[in-house]
Structure formats: structure tokens, C-alpha cells
Amino acid sequence: MTRSVRTFCRICEVHCGLVVDVEGTPGVGGGERVVKVRPDREHPVSRGYCCVKGLGLGALHHDEDRLETPLKRVGGELVPISWEQANREIGARVRALVDEHGPRAVGMYQGNPTFFSLAGTLMSAGYVEALGSPNVFASHSIDVNTKFHVSTEMYGLSLVQPVPDLAHVEMFMCLGSNPLVSQMSVVQVADAAGVLRAVEERGGRVVVVDPRRTETARRVGEHVAIRPGTDAYLLAAMLHVVTREVGVDLAPARAVARGVDAFVAAGAPWTPERAEAVTGVPAATIRELATAYAAADGAALYCSTGVNMGPFGSICAWLVQGLNLLTGNLDRRGGLLVPRGAFDTLRLADLVGLGRFDEHRTTDGRWHRVAGAFPVAALADEITTEHPDRTRALFVTSGNPVHSVPGGRLGAALERLDLVVSVDLYRNETAAHADYVLPATDMLERSDFPASHQSLQVVPHAQWTPPVVAPLGERRTEWRIFSDLALASGVRPWGTTPAHLLPRLNRLLARLPGSPQVGFEQLLAVLLRWGRRTTLGELRRRPEGVLLPPTEPGTFLGRRVATPDGLVDLAPADLVADLERLAAMEADLARPGVLRLVGRRDRRSHNSWMHNNPYIEQPDGNTALLHPLDAEERAIADGDEVEVRGEAGAVRLPARLTTDVARGVVVVPHGWGHRASGASRARARAGVNVNEVVPGGAPHMEPVSGQAVMLAHVVEVVPVAALSPTSG
Ligand SMILES: Nc1nc2c(c(=O)[nH]1)N[C@H]1C(S)=C(S)[C@@H](COP(=O)(O)OP(=O)(O)OC[C@H]3O[C@@H](n4cnc5c(=O)[nH]c(N)nc54)[C@H](O)[C@@H]3O)O[C@H]1N2
Ligand SMILES: Nc1nc2c(c(=O)[nH]1)N[C@H]1C(S)=C(S)[C@@H](COP(=O)(O)OP(=O)(O)OC[C@H]3O[C@@H](n4cnc5c(=O)[nH]c(N)nc54)[C@H](O)[C@@H]3O)O[C@H]1N2
Ligand code: SF4
Ligand SMILES: [Mo]
């Protein structure tokens, strides 16, 4: 008998609706088999859109390389142990470390999929908080710390991230994103490329600013090629034109923001002509784009990781937000809106401490927490630098930091820890340094609600999913894993609220057949009732999801801005001060003849964790893209093996020549390099990890937000044949 269960994908921010066909008897031990995953045509937003990664969720669920039992390192090998033993031993070691060195000895790294699991987010944070440790690191500091930092300053809350009103926008300017491949980031929109095409079909304009003519730029809009790392100069010049040449009326901005004059001054030195010399974008193009943007009846500037990860990520996020506000495009139809969600996730994040800056600093006093986490680029130093509060134990949940953090130093640093625990689906490259590896459920094995992404929806909606199938093997939800670890460590998450009884209650319930767990749905039901837009009952009755009221323009400025005086801060002091770096780095960034390294993604990959999926025909993506003229100067032919050398190290991979890449740019994707993986197919097509080339640590952190600077580093590319004449 086949049953069909509605759910949604939680790999990327789209959260596509899916229908999963399952055979076998429901429940643990029923031999359930996912026979097919289909796009859900009745989903109110994705309406049948999805990608191969979502369709591969059944194969992910059944992958024989998945973790099935807890593992412990014994004599260098990871061997299976019971959950009871794992919890007891880890709990005892945590207690001993906290007793001897204090709570800060224990750290937590939350990887990207953490934020796609409400229970995982709440319980992993609840565990370290219960221990009394502020020592949280998260993948957003190798992704979007810049935007979170800037929003905390400008709007009072990190998670205020205005989203483009793509249904009505007249001009959409997209910097450093490849929507057709990535579906964008920090905005939730289904079929991003289709939506952008629709903008054009309506007579609107889409501009893609990118050093590479990307899959998106080939199919939609106008492509503006830019020199890597130089978007800040382009944006400053747009500000220059908008304020000094177009002469936009500043009065409306003054009514809702402070620091207008200081913000305008940021653009003063940057004439389009001066910006042309560093960005490579012709002054006439800059002038035309800025003028059209200021004149459009609804326009949105948007930047993503290709900008966040550059040398001026925070300045860019600030200029983007400020320009959108100054031109009247913030909080208006066709511009940018600030969605609210089924419940006010912005307020909730504030209540749980993710909203604002707090008093906690890294042990060297240099970095504060952004959206509740220290920059992970500082983690190696937090482990290796002698200090009473140095990190001595690390939990890694849904993350692969040894692989995803630049600099190639973190693996060696983890070897110095007294305890490393990885909670994951696979034995990934980080698990190679772990003392314990704990098997988590995948997204078909747990119930969920996409709370982290509620305030990022272009089309507001809500959906709840039950677990589609029972967990295989001994996999457990993070809800249970971290609450059991808390009990074993002698602490209670949410100790001041009635919720602190949940871990104990669940420990008792776990003895019943099927190990039922309570608390998660009940908590969600309360949050939804608080939000008053839908209920858990309604979401259970409408498993395909429900539309919420559209975000109304005019509901943010002067009303929901969370700064002390309710005004947007257009001139935060640290950002104004950081402007100095623009002039200081201008000449270097314009330097001719060098190659600068940038990244790219593939539709079939997802960071480091899609290369083992047998359903997904794996891309031949681990190549270095170069412009043919840059290749010729270095005697490189298409397909040659090349060595890409940076400050941190070197990797070897095949070169591909294409005029899609601007001169002076080399493109190498991240996510590859699986020699140390415990997943067999990924290991077999290992590829190389670009983060062994990208330099890491303090000198390469964006000074305002602590975001790791991962783009635009100068590298050398040499043909391997020239290095070792005997080869080939
Ligand atoms: N298929 C797939 N989808 C994904 C992911 C994945 O790995 N695979 N990852 C997900 C995650 S975690 C995230 S954060 C999002 C990211 O989503 P995006 O931010 O859209 O990321 P990318 O697709 O890497 O696009 C970044 C673009 O920036 C360009 N770029 C590089 N340097 C510069 C520069 O200096 N200036 C400008 N203007 N552009 C530059 C690159 O050439 C690239 O085209 O994607 C998500 N979606
Ligand atoms: N050079 C370079 N480096 C980059 C980037 C880049 O563009 N260039 N991109 C950066 C970006 S945007 C990001 S977001 C980071 C990502 O960095 P990380 O989050 O550190 O790494 P991922 O590769 O996403 O690994 C996610 C892990 O979570 C596991 N996992 C998946 N689902 C679950 C689950 O439900 N529960 C548990 N417990 N585990 C799960 C997967 O098996 C995988 O091992 O990488 C960053 N690194
Ligand atoms: S676009 Fe693909 S990966 Fe992203 S949510 Fe949809 S099915 Fe999942
Ligand atoms: Mo990301």
C-alpha cells in the first residue's frame, strides 16, 4: 500500500512543497520505504516548482552511508556505541570541563541546516545556554554576518532583512547572487529565475552585477561585469549620482531616519569616473543605472553572498539599505517590504537573544556576537590561544566547519580540544576530528515549521509538516539529542520557565514504544496562537500550506523599527569609520594583471553535503574557470590541470576556459574536497576544497561584522605540467 504525505523541502530557503509516496507500515520497524518524492502542485506558493535536490530526499533518507548509530572514537577508529553510553560519557566530560574551567569551555557550532529545523535551532541553543556558555558560533558568519550586523545597527534587530516586492518591482538590481542556481539568500521566493523573467515580461528591468556572466545573467536581464570585491565603490557612486546629480528629495528620509547627511556624505568622493577605475564598470553605466533606479516606480537593490563575502560586506549592506530608504523604496509597494510571518519572528528572535548585540566578546575582546553567535573565523584562535576561557569542547550540529571555514587551520585546532561531538546525517570531514558522532534524523523524519524564514517571505505563507516516515536505525531528532545531553550534563534548558520540565518528561516517554516526544508541537501551537494568523489545527488540516495576508507597505518605517528612538540609523559610527578603507584599498583592487578568486554554486550541489546522493547526477563542477586570455598568458589550455595557489595553500584541479568570466577572475566552487569524508561516493569523487586556498583567521575578517572575507583574494594559477615536467 502506498500513502502520500505532504511536506516541504528544507535544503534551501525556498521551502518547496513536496509530496512523498511511502510504502510499508507506518511507525518504527514498519519497513517504510520512500518510493518517490514529487513536487506539490497544490502548494500555495511553490505550485509544483522544486529542484533535483528536493526530489533526492528519499535517496538521502535511505542512503546506506548515513549514520545509523552513535559512534565513539576508540584507538583512532569510530565504533558503534549505544545512545545510553554516548549520553553518559559526553555528559560526564562536559560536567568535568565546566567544573574545572567554567561554562565557556564548551562551545557550539551551528551549521547552515540548523536554521532549517526549528527544533534543532531551539534545542542546540537551549543546551549551551543552559550550560551558561555564550560560546556559540554559526555558519552565518561565513555567509551573511554583514547583513545581520548592519540591520542590528540600522533597524535595531539583526533579522530585519527587507525583501524585494518582486511581484510589483519595476527595477531589480541584483549584486552577487545567482538566483537561477541558488534561489538567492535571505529572501524566500519560489522559482527565483521565473519570477525575475516575469519582471521583464511586465516591462520591468533586471540588472545582474557579477564578475561572471552567470546562468542567471545568461537568461534574464542585463549583465554588468564587475571586478571582484569592488561593489562598495559601485554603490557609493550610485549614492553620489542619486544625491548629487539626480538630487533626490531627502525630506521623506529625514522623517524616518537619523544620520541622513552623514550617509549622503559617504557617496561624496565617489564620482562614477573614480568608481569606474576600480570597479571596471563604465561611468556612463553607473550613471544610467543610478538615474533609472532613482526614477523607477518601485525599485529594489539587493545583494547576496558575492558581496557579503567580499572585503566590504558591511559597507555594501549599509549602502544597499540606505539607498533603498533614501530613494523611497523601503516599505513601499514594488520596493522592499518587511514581512512579519505567522508569528512575529523578529520579536521572538529578540526575546531569545538573537536580535541585538550583547555584552559577550571573544576571549581577545575583539569580536562581539552577531545574531547570537561569534564569528567562526575566530574559532581556531579561541581554541588554540592560551586563556582561562579558551574553548576546550565543541559540539558541531548540522555543520562541517573544518570544510566550510577558510584557512584550512580549523582541523588542526580541533585536534587540541578535549571533546568534539558531531551531530549530523553523515560522517563528514569535521567528524574526522570528532570523539563522538551522533546520528540525527533527516527532514523526512521530523516534524517542522520554518520559523527562521518567516520574515523573509516574498509571498507570506505558513506550512507545518509531520514526520513523513519513522526514523531509520537509531537516528534521533535534535530535540531529543540535545535535551538528553542537557540532562546528562546536569543542566536544564529554559530553567526559568515551565519548559524546563520537558527533557525529563521526554526521557520518561522515550521508554514507550516509538519513543514519543512532546513539547515541540505544543510550543509551536502557542507561538501560532500568539501570532493570530493561523493555528496548528488549521495547518494540520491544510497540509499543503496556507497563504497569509500579504505584507502591507507602510507598516515598517516609523512603526516597527526597533531602535531606541524608532528611527532608522543611517550612519552607524563603525560603518562611517570603515569608509576609510575604501580609499586605502582602491589602488590595490584596481591592480591589473592579477587573478582574483571567487566562487560559484551548482544546482545539484549544496555546500558540502549533496555529493553522496545517488539520486542526483553529480556535476563535473570541481573546476577552475578562467578567461581564455588570462589562460593564454599562463600557457593554460582548456582541461589542463592547474594549481591554484593562495595565501593559505594550494589545490590542483582542471581548468575550464570561458569568456563568461571577466578578465582577472578565477572561479572555483566551494563544497568539494571529500578525501576525509566517511561517505563513500563523495569520497570517491573527492575533488578539492577551495577553503585550503582562501586565507582565514583574524587578518581576513571583515572588520565591522567579523564575517570571513572569502572573495577577491589574489591567487596564482599555474599549469601543473609546468611544475613537474615529467608528469603527462
Ligand atoms: N544549488 C545550490 N543552491 C544553494 C546553495 C548551494 O550550495 N547550491 N547554497 C545555499 C546557501 S547556503 C546560500 S547562502 C545561498 C547563496 O546564494 P547566492 O548569494 O545567490 O550565491 P551564489 O550562487 O554563490 O552567487 C554568488 C554570486 O556572486 C558572484 N560574485 C563573486 N564575487 C563577487 C563580487 O565581488 N561582486 C559581485 N557583485 N558578485 C560577485 C559570483 O560570481 C556568484 O555568481 O545559496 C543557497 N542555495
Ligand atoms: N569558500 C567558500 N566557503 C564557503 C562558502 C562559499 O561560498 N565559499 N559558502 C558558505 C556558506 S553560504 C555557508 S551557509 C557555509 C555552510 O557551512 P556549514 O553549515 O558548516 O557546512 P555544510 O556544508 O552546509 O554542512 C552541513 C552539514 O549538516 C548536515 N545536515 C544536513 N541536514 C541535517 C540535519 O537535519 N541535522 C543534522 N544534525 N545535520 C544535518 C550535512 O550532512 C552536512 O554535514 O559554507 C560557507 N563556506
Ligand atoms: S529549490 Fe530545491 S533545494 Fe531549494 S527548497 Fe526547493 S527542492 Fe529544496
Ligand atoms: Mo549560506
UniProtKB/TrEMBL annotation:
EC number per UniProt: 1.17.1.9
Record-level Gene Ontology MF annotations: formate dehydrogenase (NAD+) activity; iron-sulfur cluster binding; metal ion binding; molybdopterin cofactor binding
EC supergroup of this enzyme: oxidoreductase
Pfam families: Molybdop_Fe4S4, Molybdopterin, Molydop_binding
TM helices/strands, residue ranges: none
InterPro entries reported for this sequence: Asp_de-COase-like_dom_sf, MoPterin_dinucl-bd_dom, Mopterin_OxRdtase, Mopterin_OxRdtase_4Fe-4S_dom, Prok_Mopterin_Oxidored
Origin: domain of life: Bacteria
Record keywords, A-Z: Iron, Iron-sulfur, Metal-binding, Oxidoreductase
Domain 4Fe-4S Mo/W bis-MGD-type: 2-65
Keyword DNA-binding: no
Matching Gene3D superfamilies: 2.40.40.20, 3.40.50.740, ADC-like domains, Dimethylsulfoxide Reductase, domain 2
Similarity remark: Belongs to the prokaryotic molybdopterin-containing oxidoreductase family.
Name of the protein this chain belongs to: Formate dehydrogenase
Organism from which the protein derives: Nocardioides marinisabuli
